[in-house]
Amino acid sequence: MTPLSHRLAALLTAGLIAATATAQAAGYHPPRNGLGQPDLQGTWTNASLTSLQRPAMFKGLTLTEAEAAALEKRRAAARAQQDKPTDPNAGAPPEAADPGGYNASWTDPGVSLGRIDGQVRTSWIVDPLNGQLPYSTEGRKAYIEALRKARNSWDGPENRPLGERCILGFGSTAGPPMLNVLYNNNYQIVQSKDAVVILVEMNHDARIIRLTDNKHPQPSIRPWMGDSFGWWEGDTLVVETTNFNPGESLRPYFGNSILLSPNAKVTERFTRVSTKQILYQFQVNDPATYSQVWRAEMPLNSAAGPVYEYACHEGNYALPGILAGARKADKEGRRIEAVDVSGR
What we know:
Number of domains: 1
Number of strands: 15
Oligomer: single chain
Radius of gyration: 21 Å
Structural class: alpha+beta
Order of helices and strands: HEEHEEEHEEEEEEEEEEH
C-alpha cells in the first residue's frame, strides 16, 4: 500500500469511527456520578468470539445477522462437544502426546460475535482495512524472535512468559490495549475526582489512570501496564499510556499475540453509549514495530455480578515442573523446542 493509500485508508477509518460514535451517542446521554463526570462505573466484559485480527475466513469488517447466527451456532456446537465428560474407558494418551489442557467448562471466551452500533464485527481492528496488524519488516522479525524466545527459553523462571509467572494476565488482557482472551474477560471501573481505576479480573491487575497530572515520568521509570493519565472530552474519557515495561513487550495469545515496543504510545477512548455498553476505541503508535498507526474498537458490555478474585497459581505449580523437565532434557542431551513460533 502506498503512503497516499495509507492516508486515505486512515481518513476513511477515522470517519467510520467518528460516525459510529456519533450514531451510538445520538439520543443517549450517559448518567453523571456525584462529581459530575460521565459515569463509567460498574462491571464490564469484552468476552466475544470476535478477536483483534480478522480471520482469513472473513472478507470484510462486518457480517449479516444471519451469517453471525450460523457461525455462533457452529461455535456453540463445538464447545458442547469439547465439554462432554471424558470417556473413562479411553485409557492413557500415547506417550509424548499432548494430553490437552483446560476442560472447556473452565473457559469463558464468549458465545457471540461483537456488535457495535448494530453491526456484527469480524475483527476489532478497523485500520488497516484488512483487519491485520501492520508489522513493519523489522517489527515482524522482532515479533517472531520474541515468540521464539518465549517458547524455547527454559534456563530459569525469568525467561518464561508473564502469565506463567503470575505477574500479569496472559495476552493483553490488562492492556493497554485491553483485549479479550480465553477466560476472565471482566473489568470493574471505579472513578474518583483524581483518578479512574480499572480492575482487571485476569490476575487482579489494577490500572490507575491519573486525571490531575498530564506528564509522564522520565523514560527510566517503566511500570507494568505503562504509565497512564487521562482527561475528559465531553462524554469520553481519553487515556494516554507510554513508558511500557520492556518485560511486557510480547503479549502472547495464540493467533492474536501482539508485540509493543517499550516506547509505544497507546491512546484509548471510553464512551458510554447506552445503559449496557461502553464503546472502547484505541490506537497504537509504535514506529519501532508497525508501519503505521493502527486503530481498533470493541464493545465493553455490562456484566452481572462482581469481579471474582483471580488467585493465580500456575507459577506455583507448573514452573517447577517446566524447569525440572528442561533439566532432565539437558542431562539426556535433548533439545526442547516449540515447532510453531509464528503465533498464527
